[in-house]
Structures are given as C-alpha cells and as structure tokens.
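Data availability (excerpt). All sequences and predicted token strings are deposited with the supplementary files. A representative entry, Integrase arm-type DNA-binding domain-containing protein, is shown inline so that the format can be inspected without opening the archive.
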Amino acid sequence: MARQFQFTPGQIDLLGFGTHRDSLVPGLAIEVLSSGKKRWRYRRQIPRTRIIATLFGGLYPAVTIAAAREWADGLNHQVEAGIDPREVTRNERRRAEMTVAKAHGLYMVAVREGRSSRAKRPNKPRTIKEKLEIYERDIAPKLAKANIYEVTERDLIRLVEAKGRKAKIRANRLAAELKVFFGWAASLRGLEVGLETDPSLRLGDLRFPETARSRKLDLMEIRWFLRAVVDEERDFQRGMILWLLTAARISEVAQARGAELVGDIWTIPETRAKNSCAHSIALGPWGRSLMRTNHEWVFPAPRAHGPRNNSVWYKARDRVWARMEELAGHAIERFTPHDFRRTARSNTKRLKVDFETAEAMLNHVKKGMERTYDRYEMEDEKRAWFITWEREVAKIAIDAGVADALGVPDYNAETRAKAYAINFSLPKRAGAHPALDVRPLEARAVPVLAVTRAEIVFAREPGRPPLSEPVDLPPG
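Structure token line:
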C-alpha cells in the first residue's frame, strides 16, 4: 500500500522504491522507479462509476511539487464533476492535431457519402472535383497547416478579399465553399471535427456582384476565328473547332475519350456531364474527322498520361484571340470556350430550330412535371440540328478560304446526282401487272445496250379489244 505524507523536497530526495501519496492533494502520488527516477502519477476513481483514471505528469524535479499539485487540482475538478480526465486529454490532443487539411479530408469523405449538407445526397463527380480544385488552389496554400479551431472570421475574409481583387466570380465560389466546409465542421454532421463556432457565418455578405455573360460570336467573328485557328497546333485546332461544332463545355471536349465515339455518335457519359445526364452528339463528317484518335484520349497530354488540362486550352484561346484582332484590324471582345455554346444556341432561331430541340442540343434538362413525364430524348431532332450547324460552319470556312487547311470535307460529294438503272419486267400473260425495279447504276466492264422502247399491254376487259400503248424510255 502506498505511503501517504506531505511532500517536501528533502523528503522526496530520501524516498525509496515504490509509490508515495501526497497528503494534501487527493489522487497525487510520486513513483520511485527501479532506475531511481521519480515520476508524478495521478490515480482516482470517478464518482458513481467504476472507472479509475490514471495519468502521469512528468518527472521530478523537472516538474516541481507546486506544479504537480496544480496539475492534480485541475484533474480533481474534472473527476468531481464526473468527467474522465483521460478523455479530456485525448480531446485536447485531437484538437491540437486537427489542422484545416485534416478536417478537409474528413469533410471530403462526407461529401462523397452525401453527409456534407442538409440535402443528404451524394455529390456529383463534377461537384467533388470542383470542391477539391477550390481547396487545393485557394484554401490549402494559406490555411492547410493551421489549427482549424484557431481559424478566425478575419482569416477567411482576407482569403476571399485577396481572391476578389483578381477574380470576383471565383471569390464568390470560394466564399460559398468556405461556408459549406466550416458550416459542416460546426454542425452535428461534422462531429468528427466538432467546431464550436462557425467563422464563415457572415461570408455571404462579401459576395461580389456578378454580371451574367451574354457574349456570343457573330458570323464575321466566326469567320475570323476559323482563319485564326489555322495557325494552331493540330490538337488545339481540332479541339477549338469542336467547341463550336458541338456546343460542348471545355472540360467535356478536353477530357473526351476515344471510346466515347461510336460510329457518328459522340456520347458524353453522365459522369462527365454537368447535370449527370449522358449527352449524345451526332457528328457530321467534319466532326468525326476532328474526333478521330488512336489514343485513349482524344486530346492526350504530350508528357503525361491523361488529357491536356484546361489551362493550356485557355492559352491557345489567347493566341487565337490575338490573331483575330489582327485580322479584324480592331479590338475584339474577349470570349471564353463557354461562349461557343451561347453562339450555337443563338443561331438556332436563324436556322429555324424549335426551342425544345435547341435546349436538348445543349443538354439542358426539362423542368417541372415535363421532366417527370416527358421522357422523349429528341435524338433525331438533335442529329438534324448538329448536322445543319456543322454544314453552316463549314460554309463559313469555305467562304473564308480555309476549308482545306481545317480539313473541311466535300459535302457536295454526298449529295451529287447519281445514275440509276430502271428495269421493267413485262408480263407474259394478260391480266398480270408489269414490275418496276430502280437501282443505282453500277460500273460495268462490258457495255450494255440501252432499251429505248418497250410496249406495255394492259389486261383486256370483257367486250373490249386489247389496248396497246408504246412507252419511250430514256437511255441508261
């Protein structure tokens, strides 16, 4: 049994092997180890439980008698309140280790499982990707190593304001994501983090004004664009023309896989579509030639496995934009890849395309009850539109004199008049009908003499003589 007495430095120096309790502070004792070292120990049963809490408080004399008693007094307050001090210690250690990076890792698990918001449904792959991009680009460089419990509202305000000085729309997206992340950490959904207060609560007041984009390219700008894109590397040339022909988003084009093209149909899978609805695009001969690839990716990165990233496409856009201004002889308003979607959509009325087809062409989903009950996919109507639009753009390329440089096919070859052979099978008996067979005329090695005249005999009616009428046939 441990001896109990009031600790003094002189008495502690004389202590032998064993455990010795302090008479002034309940639970506090000093252990003399076999090595001769003296270690502070706290051991006490939590009231109304069978739990005995044991903790160690460092070595004497590094931890003095006064410091040890102060440490034990704090533990006694917890024990007498029914709190296990070991749990308090574990929570303190967990809090000290809970950086923003660690908390964000837990948050992304909740995002994938659908526990990050009140909606409680799994997020789309595109949403998950965007959240990670915002974190890695805007949050991690400044806050990743910070303790999340020490992040203040002022820290978040500085982060959003700094972003707003360069890109206002992205600053709004950053503020929205910070609100979701810290809101989750401070809610019951984020108990793994257990943030007591939400520092992002007022970030919505920082929202920068946004103006809806209305930029579209007119027909003359399309002409300049096609002339300017001629000087681009072939992959960039192909991809940028596909922005225009398909009205697809930049990521949908840039990350396209060769397997997505089957015949003349390019299908953007639901995992890559913004609205998680697969989208089929009928390609004409020009579009098919632009999508053709022997690689896994339609636009593979030259030095890494995978597609080219979006940043290189924007640099290509900048080069084309500069050439367009040279061709025009004046400044041209900046355009984005997304503006090609607006350009295609804005030409639907001019090309006599109805509203529903125009919306389906952009993969916009139907709304309300129509979305629930009208499941018609409008694939035939979309096909007609995409082919019409491709021919329209091809016509502009031909007029601009860049059709050959851009690989525009000869559409007239498909509709050029063909020769046909017409064969009659004349009846061998009265009452039978003549047969007519029309087929494309095939090339023959041996010339065939054309029939220039034939006689069709109609069935004789009772009381009337047979009627014969000559019929002239053209040669061939």
